Amino acid sequence: MADHTHYPDDYLKGILTDVKTIALLGASPKPDRPSFGVMRFLMSKGYQVFPVNPGQAGKEILGRTVYATMADIPEPIDMVDVFRAPEYLGEVVEEALALPNRPKVLWGQLTVRDDDAVKPAEAAGIKVVMNRCPAIEMPRLGL
């Protein structure tokens, strides 16, 4: 998808109904942080969420073990949900492309957008959504 300003509802709905496992990058143990609230929301909707945060690795957030990197997650992930600054999106794409089982979706949270950084992911067939929040999109789409 070339236009990352507008996403058709059926594109977003397809992603959010197809995905089962999510790596949440930049997960925080602090309840006042957006990543904590979104992780709780996604878990309440039945997704299996793997928090990723090198500074919290080995600890738990919302009862889930925190991993240092996506590569440390013990099973394939369908979607990477990115709570990191846009300048890190290129590194996230490189890490995702290096996984033996590549994710189907790369999702950049609100303000997380870098059209150039995601081009290699798109070229590899990974669906990309940026500057959106699944916790906002799901209720809007009736999911």
Tally of structural domains: 1
Q: Provide the CATH superfamily.
A: NAD(P)-binding Rossmann-like Domain
- Which bin fits the share of residues in helices? 25-40%
Largest sheet strand order: 2-1-5-6-7
Order of helices and strands: HEHEEEEHEHEH
Strand-residue proportion: 15-25%
Question: Describe the biggest sheet?
Answer: 5 strands, parallel
The first-level CATH class name: Alpha Beta
**Rounded to an integer, what's the Rg over CA atoms?**
14 Å
Sheet/helix structural class: alpha/beta
Using the alpha-carbon principal axes, give the shape: globular
The gist of it:
The chain has about 140 residues and is α/β, with parallel strands linked by helices.
Describe this structure as you would to a colleague.
The chain is globular and about 40 Å long. The two termini are 22 Å apart. The strands form two sheets. A five-stranded parallel β-sheet has the order 2-1-5-6-7, sandwiched between helices. It has a two-stranded antiparallel sheet with strand order 3-4. Helix 1 crosses helix 5. It has 143 residues and is of the alpha/beta class. It has a single domain, classed as NAD(P)-binding Rossmann-like Domain (Rossmann fold, 3-Layer(aba) Sandwich). Helix 4 (119-123) links the parallel strand 6 and strand 7 (127-129). The chain has helices at 9-18, 34-44, 89-98, 119-123, 134-141, and strands spanning 21-25, 48-52, 60-61, 64-65, 79-82, 105-108, 127-129. The protein contains five helices and seven strands; from the N terminus they run H-E-H-E-E-E-E-H-E-H-E-H. It is 31% helix and 17% strand.
